[in-house]
Write a structure and sequence with these properties.
This protein is of the alpha+beta class and 369 residues long. The protein contains 9 helices and 17 strands. The structure holds flavin-adenine dinucleotide and magnesium ion. Magnesium ion binds next to helix 8.
Length: 369
């Protein structure tokens, strides 16, 4: 009896334990689900990592959404440091420094990064008929323009440097990963294109980490990935070229695009009421006076946008727009020194002019005179 009773009790106990365990497991999974989805809400779409660094002589701001934001943003900083190390002119260890040192003497072996940037730079030099020219180095050095300082070289000095500026003298072997400059005294300066490549690399890294929404600003070169986390497009302001930083002449909305501006308002100095800025016209040797004070390019790849913003700035309104309209998937917002704002055909109706920028007039699509 006792045994029967014991057996009965132990069976009851087993049922009881089973019921308690099932309940506990059920509660655990419900709780776990809640915890995970709670974390998801915080970590995935809503979690934002904001990181600011100083690289390539400028402030770099990243805004990265998603669970891997922190690690992706750190990886981007590491990669930008690597690119800077390769192409900077400020270090005797850089590949571009070596290429310039060997000008007129011989060929140098370069990394894939540097060969790629040089090749794209040469492509835009050809496309812009030399308005963009990576061999502009001797002129950039002679002017030495940085915010608030620089010097005005004499006419003779400029005349003596002009024969050195010729992208045809930059010989690149993309298979052997080598390059050379034909003449002694020539030098390459990638200041007008390298930040663009760095921006493209940032986007590649975000994607690699599964990020779907991010924004990076490399001293005025903006690159976006996807939409904002709420699904709306990124709103990018076009800097008012005659007002303090952060005041816009207008806004455009973009997803998966880059927006890059070249202007005469960031790096310049003034002498006798005249502004000398850092974008040099390789044909004259002087800061470009094409009639444009700002050129913004909107397209897919930031290396293209960077090279094109500088090219178009030097080409001016008519020739610049002609080049932009010729290229598929490339749009522009150009501002003239008489403060008129023009857009390319694909941006018609898409540029939200800021009515507070009362000095400026939004003309709309540029129609050739
Ligand atoms: P953009 O219009 O894109 O480029 C203008 C720049 O391109 C000029 O400054 C010149 O370098 C070059 N250029 C001028 N005319 C032409 C032309 N016709 N064709 C082609 N190129 C032209 N700045 C510092 O003060 N300190 C630093 O330590 C420093 N390090 C840098 C390291 C790297 C790797 C790079 C890429 C740039 C660095 N800079 C540094 C430069 C600085 O950030 C420049 O302001 C920037 O590259 C110019 O970009 P932008 O967007 O203002 O103008
Ligand atoms: Mg540029």
């Amino acid at each position: 009896m006792a045994a029967k009773r014991g057996k009965y009790l132990s069976f009851k106990n087993i049922i009881f334990v089973f019921a308690v365990l099932s309940f506990a497991i059920m509660i655990f999974f419900i709780a776990k689900d809640n915890i995970t989805s709670g974390l998801n809400n915080e970590n995935a779409e809503n979690k934002v990592v904001k990181k600011q660094s100083f690289l390539m002589g400028t402030v770099i701001t990243q805004q990265v959404y998603g669970a891997n934001g922190e690690i992706a943003a750190d990886e981007v900083v590491r990669r930008l440091e690597e690119i800077e190390k390769r192409v900077t002119l400020n270090s005797a260890d850089s590949e571009i420094y070596m290429l310039n040192e060997m000008a007129g003497k011989g060929t140098v072996s370069l990394s894939k990064d540097t060969i790629y940037i040089l090749s794209v730079a040469k492509k835009y030099a050809e496309l812009s008929n030399g308005a963009f020219d990576p061999t502009v180095g001797p002129l950039v050095k002679a002017w030495g323009i940085s915010p608030g300082s620089g010097r005005i070289p004499g006419d003779e000095e400029i005349k003596s440097l002009l024969p050195l500026i010729d992208f045809n003298d930059l010989i690149i072997d993309e298979e052997k990963l080598t390059a050379r400059l034909e003449k002694a005294g020539q030098s390459v300066d990638l200041g007008g294109i390298a930040k663009g490549y760095a921006g493209d690399e940032a986007i590649r890294i975000y994607r690699e980490y599964g990020i779907e929404s991010a924004y990076i600003n490399l001293g005025g070169n903006v690159v976006t990935l996807g939409n904002k986390p709420d699904g709306s497009p990124w709103r990018i302001g076009v800097q008012n070229p005659r007002d303090i930083t952060g005041n816009y002449v207008g806004i455009i909305e973009v997803s998966n695009k880059t927006v890059v501006t070249s202007g005469d308002y960031e790096r310049y100095f003034e002498r006798d009421g005249k502004r000398y800025h850092h974008i040099i016209d390789p044909r004259t040797g002087y800061p470009s006076e094409s009639g444009l004070i700002s050129a913004t390019i909107v397209c897919d790849l930031s290396i293209d946008a960077d090279a094109l913003s500088t090219s178009v700035f030097v080409l001016g309104l008519e020739k610049g727009m002609e080049l932009v309209e010729k290229l598929e998937g490339v749009e522009a917002i150009l501002i003239t020194n008489d403060k008129n704002i023009y857009v390319s055909s694909g941006l018609e109706g898409k540029f939200n002019f800021n009515e507070k920028a009362t000095d400026f007039k939004y003309v709309g699509k540029y129609n050739r005179q």
